[in-house]
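Narrative of accomplishments. A recurring question from our advisory board has been how the design workflow behaves on a single, concrete structure rather than in aggregate. To address it, we present the structure tokens for one chain from the evaluation set, followed by the sequence designed for it. No filtering or post-editing was applied between the two.
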């Protein structure tokens, strides 16, 4: 197995990163009470004192991961008020709402 000390320190580092990533997911999701861009989320987290700057790269990789997991989705695009560039707008996925909407298509109406 090689050097058990370096294996242990690598594992400890990995575990620490995993925990920090989970915390960042929770922080991002807590900000998403309405559809927002990565920059808007970063600004909000900065203003709360959670991240050290308004740089979107503090949240953008996590948004991509959350999107791959089906927890958020890009729903629109708009011109960023901070950069002037066209950017994605994300919102939380409401799985229950989506499931109900899908099922309503095949349930006969009684009215």
């Amino acid at each position: 197995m090689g050097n058990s000390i370096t294996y242990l320190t690598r594992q400890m580092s990995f575990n620490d990163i995993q925990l920090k990533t989970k915390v960042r997911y929770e922080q991002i999701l807590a900000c998403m009470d309405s559809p927002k861009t990565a920059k808007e989320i970063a600004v909000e987290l900065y203003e709360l004192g959670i991240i050290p700057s308004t740089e979107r790269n503090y949240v953008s990789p996590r948004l991509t991961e959350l999107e791959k997991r089906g927890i958020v989705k890009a729903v629109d695009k708009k011109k960023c008020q901070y950069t002037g560039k066209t950017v994605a707008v994300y919102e939380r996925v409401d799985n229950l709402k989506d499931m109900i909407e899908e099922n309503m298509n095949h349930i006969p109406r009684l009215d």
